[in-house]
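tool_call: predict_structure(chain=1)
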Amino acid sequence: MLIIGIAGGTGSGKTTVVNNILSTLSSEDVIVISQDNYYKDGSHLPFAEREKINFDHPRAIDFDLLVKHIKALKNKEVIEQPIYSFLTHSRTEEVIITHPKHVVIVEGILVLTNPELRELFDLKLFVHADSDERLIRRIRRDIQERGRDLDEVLTRYQKTLKPMHEQFIEPSKNYADIIIPNEKKKNTVAVEVLSAVINNKLNSI
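tool_result:
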């Protein structure tokens, strides 16, 4: 089994890189684990308190469960991934039944900040994008997918996203084996290199 960690700032294009890699592989060989589903459950808190959660701080992530699940997959065990709702700021009652496969991709802004999780990765990637470009992508996503307004997105960016990026996310790229520049044009060379590495690993299994 090949376990790949892909990190990068919010709006850096991690999902695009993941999708580009997936397009070169068989769906039977790879699964993607999103850090976003492993935010700690806030259902025990009033909604007003849940809205104040700092989602860009490592303590917001249930790393214990994420590490447990990755280890289980390595042991060829089936896991039940939680599903997190950013509309209610809590986990849903549904889960994702996930079977082990040859390649496991774990993606999220904070996946390289946790030492125990990093130790499980065979390959660590960091997707880098210009801060202005990341902000534009974040605004579009939060308004279109998470029902937030512009003022809310900008306030959160100034108060939490930017300082957390500088404190935790940007420094985590020092742990990366490969840093992928991901500006406006598609980085086909990086994707081709990564795909070759993954396919070589699959061929040796």
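agent: The beta strands are 2-8, 30-34, 79-85, 90-98, 103-107, 123-128, 178-181. Proceeding to next step.
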